TrEMBL record:
Residues 106-134 are annotated as: Disordered. Residues 1-18 form the signal peptide. This is DUF481 domain-containing protein. Residues 114-128 have a biased composition (Polar residues). Keywords: Signal.
Length: 325
């Protein structure tokens, strides 16, 4: 299995070094199948979001940038000593930018509050109930208009988890971006406080410190903290990451991660290395991620354990650029 993973990484990296004239890796017959479906769904996303925005907002809804999207992904996962697994995820966001108070309707099958501990998130593994679609949420976010490079950008949201009985939630998110000194270093902060009726309170914070090394490479230090009432312990992770753009359609990430918990008596639960290769398979609407990982978990006496994830993702949006979360 180790040789297979190595061959896959080498093959995709060698392919990416050649800058293709085409915007697609797909055969013509597959393009003919995908294009009509993608066009219909993207038009529906755009017309629905702009129609609702026009109803609640102004006539400018037909002209302003709208970052509504639907993202469908399919993951195939393998972990040493465990069974092969698959997972389907759907994220749908309707943006209403011209309303008096900017609103965003969110339908999410994989909200961050249901993704388990930091160790489970990092290893691509999920809690037992994560594959249960009852974790999907639908809600409304109110966005501040503040520029996060000048002030804290704050977002308030509320909604329900789609289960019976309905599970209400509220949450607040803050973001900030600073330039550090006169150099190219930047520090970005993302923080969220949430409450779900079934799970109680949770809090998470991410601090991202990085800089570009040149036109194609970017270096980052990422620190995460997380606390969940049902787990009732403070978790933390430290990541060193190098991102490199291989071509206009592909990029690769190398990362080393340390995951632990407790503030009074820190304990490291897992070390792991990963490589993530991402490629646009077709005109920036169909993407592929190849992610081999090597873990050293405490529960196996830090003996090495291999993991591998293949992810396919399709993006439906009415606007040209890819929307950001």
């Amino acid at each position: 299995m180790k040789k297979i993973l190595a061959l896959i990484v080498v093959a995709v990296a060698m392919q990416a070094h050649a800058e293709e004239e085409s915007d697609s890796d797909l055969p013509e017959w597959m393009v003919d199948k995908i294009t009509p479906v993608h066009s219909r769904v993207s038009r529906w996303v755009s017309s629905t979001s702009r129609g609702l925005d026009g109803f609640f907002g102004t006539d400018d809804s037909l002209r302003v940038e709208n970052q509504s999207y639907l993202r469908l992904s399919q993951e195939f996962e393998w972990r040493e000593t465990e069974d092969f697994d698959t997972d389907t995820s759907l994220r749908f966001r309707l943006d209403l930018p011209t309303t008096k108070e900017r609103l965003r309707l969110v339908i999410d099958s994989d909200p961050e509050e249901t993704q388990g501990t930091l160790e489970q998130q990092g290893s691509q593994s999920l809690r037992q109930d994560q594959t249960d679609r009852r974790n999907s949420v639908v809600g409304l976010d109110r966005l501040s208009s503040r520029d996060k490079t000048q002030n804290w950008a704050t977002k308030f949201g509320a909604g329900v988890k789609l289960r019976f009985p309905l599970d209400p939630y509220v949450r607040m998110t803050t973001e900030r971006l600073w330039d550090v000194g006169d150099g190219p270093w930047q520090l970005e902060s993302y923080n969220r406080l949430s409450w779900f009726d079934s799970d109680g309170y949770s809090a998470r914070s991410r601090w991202d410190f990085g800089r570009p090394l040149d036109e194609v490479r970017h270096f980052r230090f990422i620190t995460n903290f997380q606390w969940q009432e049902d787990v009732d312990t403070l978790e933390f992770s430290e990541t060193i990451e190098l991102n490199r753009r291989l071509s206009r359609r592909s990029a690769i990430r190398y990362a080393g991660v340390m995951v632990g918990n407790s503030s009074s008596n820190p304990r490291i639960n897992n070390y792991y290395l990963l490589t993530q290769y991402r490629r646009s398979l077709h005109k920036d609407i169909l993407f592929m991620d190849v992610i081999p990982e090597l873990h050293f978990p405490r529960d196996s006496n830090f003996d090495p354990r291999w993991a591998f994830t293949l992810r396919l993702e399709m993006l439906f949006t009415g606007d040209i650029q890819e929307p950001r979360d």
